[in-house]
Amino acid sequence: MKRLVLPLCVAFSLPACGDNHPPAVSPVAPNAAGLAAFETVREVFQHPRCQNCHPAGDAPLQGDDSHVHAQNVLRGKDGHGNIGAECTTCHGPANPPSAFGAHVPPGNVKGWHMPTEDLKLVFVGLTPRALCEQIKDPARNGGKDMPALRTHLDDPLVVWGWAPGFGRAPVSVPRDRFLAAWETWAGAGAPCPGDATASR
Amino acid sequence: MKLDINGVVRDIDAPPDMPLLWVIRDLAGLPGTKFGCGMAQCGACTVHLDGQPVRSCVLPVSAVGARKVTTIEGISSDGSHPVQRAWVEADVVQCGYCQSGQIMTAVALLEKRPDPTDADIDAGMSGIVCRCGTYNRVREAIHLASRLKRGNR
């Protein structure tokens, strides 16, 4: 009997078919679905694990409250810090062992750094629309088109946001949900929100 | 594992997650590098890996690999490095606890910026905390070391 009911659920999108069945086809227009997906993307980009290295100024941020990095750490021209105080002076090639305790600098195999002075790629404080437009703009995102941006999501420093090491909250949106939202947004033509409401 | 410290390759018997600082001080017997905070926030433990300053208190020894470690004992055998000479001449040291990290960072800074400005020095040295507040003398000594290195004095 169940074998008969299941196709009916899909075919007619019957809401009464129960939770075990595939969801009904969304009546939402592609653009609206894309905009909804972008909100998930935005939440990730403006999570402290991501935005702390994409500040409006030249000092990186740290912590779940995104406070200014201690020790007068600055991005430097190439985004790798200042001579004598490069990011990798303290941030090693991997997260330290948990046994080292909290508040020990995390690390990454790619080498810790932030955007360059000339191409800051600010995430902090931008409206959803401004963030959206910037992400898509090759003149401001390092020359990346949408496929290149998708590839960048697999960059070790990006992936680190979901495995930030002992004592740090990972990005609040699960990575698989983020990637699905990205695909939905990109598939809908990467629409940007039309309003200018502040995001945080 | 084998570790090149100050040009000497040593056999080190240590668990892979032992901080490099422990290896340097306790296993290699080089106590010039100091333990300060244990979380890369004070800079006292700074050494070089292939010439780059790193905080040895938070770096597992397994992450060193083939890179060459240089400690304060390795920049000269007799205190004759220009930065060390400048440090003495400018009478930088007060309590001295941070000086190993200060000098190692200054050495690295001058390698890449032979004639640094005050701003270069402040930006590069800001991660090395001096509890005695000798920052002005640190800056003076780095300018002096720069001149010594360039034969400009």
UniProtKB/TrEMBL annotation, chain A:
Annotated signal peptide: 1-18
Keywords, sorted A to Z: Signal
InterPro entries for the chain: Multihaem_cyt_sf
Protein name (Swiss-Prot/TrEMBL): Putative Isoquinoline 1-oxidoreductase
Automatic annotation (TrEMBL), chain B:
2Fe-2S ferredoxin-type domain residues: 1-75
UniProt key word Hydrolase: no
Coiled coil: none
Keywords, sorted A to Z: 2Fe-2S, Iron, Iron-sulfur, Metal-binding, Oxidoreductase
CDD domains, A to Z: fer2
The keyword Methyltransferase belongs to this UniProt entry's keyword annotation: no
GO molecular function ontology, one term from the record: metal ion binding
Protein name: Isoquinoline 1-oxidoreductase alpha subunit
